[in-house]
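Example record used in the benchmark description.
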Amino acid sequence: MHLDHATSSSPAKHRQALSASTPWAGGRSLASCATACHRSMAPALWRVVACLVLVTACGAGDEDGTAGATPGAAGSRAAGATRDADRTPAQSRLVDALRPAMDLVADNQFDEAYQLAEAYGSLPDALAYQAEFMLGFARHKAMRYAAARAHFERAIELAPDYHPTWHFLGFACHALGDLDRAEEAFREHARLRPGEGDDTFGLAIVALDRAQLDKAEQLLRQALAQHRGVAETGVDRRREFAKIHARLSEIYSQRDDWEEARTQLQQAVEYFTGHDEIWHMLYQAHLRLGEDDYAEQAKAMRDQVRAQSGGGR
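Model output (structure tokens):
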């Protein structure tokens, strides 16, 4: 699932979009300026600069300061004010003022992204539901799932039709062990955005945690087909394929079919080599099958990935 149809795109794409629409400080993008500033400033001073950056962003778009928002979607709403979902449908496009925060998250600068979202939320014309979403997103990516969930739930109160919130709420609730709410969130996002492979994947891992192995396998294979359809349009789905095959391996290992579990993991690492946990699972599968030499190779790859990235995410 992608924010603005590009949530998981590279930081460079976000910066390119900002540079095209909101030049600032001698032509530098707001994202690059914000990223540079937060690294050299005390937190209190950074919050002031963040507000200035965001005021510039909010005034850099159209004459009414909506920064390219969907017409009618960015009326004057103070942060925390309940919006009228019937009169003003939520825009799915992330506002330009929050894109520097997205860049900071992509750079693993989670606290700085949170502060930037707080600064945006304090502006009089802020989209409160997007501020709450970004606050939750920053906490979610920092694996602070309880805090993330609180923000996502608030964002849903403000804008139940803002579909990205439901998606990430599902994964936050799954991480917290609230499978019922996770399932509800994935189903609601699927209703708002039909055909998303990540929603089907989310429902699959809920079923897997409930030990509903046949249902989980069916959903995982459905998610695989959905992602293949997207991949045929030229979108990179290798990471998604890898995680689906890894989850399929869990199902086969629980069935004590270690040969098929190994096969699924081999397919996973063919799609994506940079996840240490998948290499660890392959190492264990080889051990169970008595394939000690292959196990050592998988273990070496696991350790190499951990040394390079500090662990899979």
